[in-house]
Every structure is written in C-alpha cells, then in structure tokens.
Amino acid sequence: MSPEIIISCNHLTVAYEDKLALEDVTFDIHRNEFWGILGPNGSGKTTLLKSMLGLVAPVSGSIRVLGVAPANLGPLRDKIGYVPQHSQVDFNFPLQVREMVLLGRCRKMGLGKRAKKEDYEAVDKALERVEMSAFARRQIGRLSGGERQRALIARALALEPEIMLLDEPTAALDVGVTEGFYEWLNHMHSQLHMTLVLVSHDVGVVSQFVSAIACLNKTLVAHGRPAEVLNQESLEQMYGCEVMLFQHGRVPHMVVPSPAHQHEHQHH
Ligand SMILES: Nc1ncnc2c1ncn2[C@@H]1O[C@H](COP(=O)(O)OP(=O)(O)OP(=O)(O)O)[C@@H](O)[C@H]1O
Ligand SMILES: [Mg+2]
C-alpha cells in the first residue's frame, strides 16, 4: 500500500488580480516525505505554500490538504506548521524564547485563555526538538540568526503539526551555518516522521537532504526524486538560462549560470 497523499495539487492555477503566479501545477505529496521546492525569484514558491494554507484561492484547478480544500481546514489547520519567509516577529520586543514559542500555541489554547500544563509541555518539547532548551529564558533579542530561526521553528512545532511548511528558512543564515541547519532539519524529519515542505533557492544543499523536489517557474517544470529531477534540461528550464552543474555523487552539488550566460549578461 502506498503512503497516504497528504497534499494534492490538481491543475492548480493561482493569480493575483489578473497576473498568474502558478499555472497548471499538478503533483502529490505523501505523508512523511521531505519535499524541496526550488525556483528563481517570483516563480510562485511562496504562493504555493500560501495555497496549501488557504491564504490564496485557486482561480482554476484545485488543491487538497489532509483531504479538504485549505479554506475549509477549520481545526485541521492546527496540523500545519508554517514558518513564513518574512517573519512578523519583532525581535526587539522584550519576550523570552519560551514565551514566543507559547504564542505559537495560541490557536489551540483559545484567545485570552491561560496556558495549561499541556501547553507548557508542548513548548518544552518543541524547544527540545530544536535543541534550544538551554535558551528557554533568553530574551529573543539576544539570539543569533541561526538560533532565531530555530526558535521560529519551535514556535511552529508548538502546535505539534503533522505538516511543516518552511519558506527560505536559511535566508538569514551565514553560508557556513546553512549546511548544518539542513543537516539538523533532516535529523528532525527522520525523528519526528513529519511531512516537510521546504522552499529554497539552494539547489545544491537541498538536493542532498530532500526525498523529492518540485522545480517551479510559475508552471511545474519538473518534480520527483532529486537524482531524476536535477538535470541540465530541467534546471535550465527552471532558471531560464544556461547552467553548469557540479556533480556530487548522483545529484548536482552546485549550479551556476554557465560562463556563456554570464558573458552575455555583462554585455547587455
Ligand atoms: N500579494 C500579492 N499581490 C500581487 N502580486 C503578488 C503578490 N504576492 C506575490 N505576487 C506575485 O506573484 C508572483 C509569485 O510570487 P511568490 O512570492 O510566490 O514568488 P517566490 O517564488 O516565493 O519568490 P521569492 O524567491 O522572491 O520569494 C510574483 O510575480 C509576485 O510579484
Ligand atoms: Mg517567496
């Protein structure tokens, strides 16, 4: 028996006013898979995550998450953790890490309700999972970029979700920290048996860890296992320019525009 389909896009087409952001996107995500969503700026990656959350509605086609249209998720919405691309958290606000993580439980606790024992337990567990227990009482303003990101993930984990959507979680991290972050994410995925959907620009690093990849450029250029998807043709179609791949085992480790393209770029 194949694993349960947890997210299903069927000819999904999304527009802002009359401009298409996603066009005819069809693919399925199964429970416990780790998907990497790749694509250049403006290719619809964030829009895809927003569609999964019901924050934008399809103009045609459909999307199902946990078997329902995302706009109708209701209480099932708590089964989805979301770490947005641009976090709305003001890190200058005088708040301890554990308090910020507790805010992630609000929807489950009910507005204005006092936190119960089970809520504090969920916070402790979330901090443990991101290896931030030692930072529980630290002011959020005194965290490094990588620690912030882990605290934001803990905030999303506080709802104990089955699906986790991460939009460019390494954007604020140093190159040196990024690979370690993905290794940690991969470890978390294997420990928690969660479905992960990770948006990233970083073909090389992502391809080492994910179980499947979707290459977006408004349309779905390619999708499947990394070794099948990451070839010259689909990457050039995705980026809209010639690329050079540096192999690292079976999957490309690094992708750069080919010198011919860079040259062209300088002269136009
Ligand atoms: N709220 C909005 N109103 C109008 N247009 C939007 C809105 N949000 C996104 N768009 C447009 O939709 C397209 C896809 O945007 P989206 O944010 O999904 O891209 P992205 O792949 O996440 O890009 P990036 O890598 O820069 O984060 C872009 O052309 C963008 O300008
Ligand atoms: Mg985006």
Q: Mind explaining what this structure looks like?
A:
There is one protein chain. This protein has a 6-stranded mixed beta sheet, sandwiched between helices. Strands 2-1-4 form a 3-stranded antiparallel beta sheet, with helices on one face. The protein has one domain (5-266): 3-Layer(aba) Sandwich (Rossmann fold). It is an alpha/beta fold. The chain contains 10 helices and 11 strands. The protein is globular. The site of adenosine-5'-triphosphate (ATP) has 11 residues, from helix 1.
The count of strands amounts to: 11
| Poorly predicted segments | none
**What fraction strand?**
25-35%
Mean pLDDT: 86
Ligand roster: adenosine-5'-triphosphate, magnesium ion
CATH architecture: 3-Layer(aba) Sandwich
- Class in CATH? Alpha Beta
Number of spatially distinct domains: 1
Helix and strand sequence: EEEHEEHHHHEHEHEEHHEEH
Structural class: alpha/beta
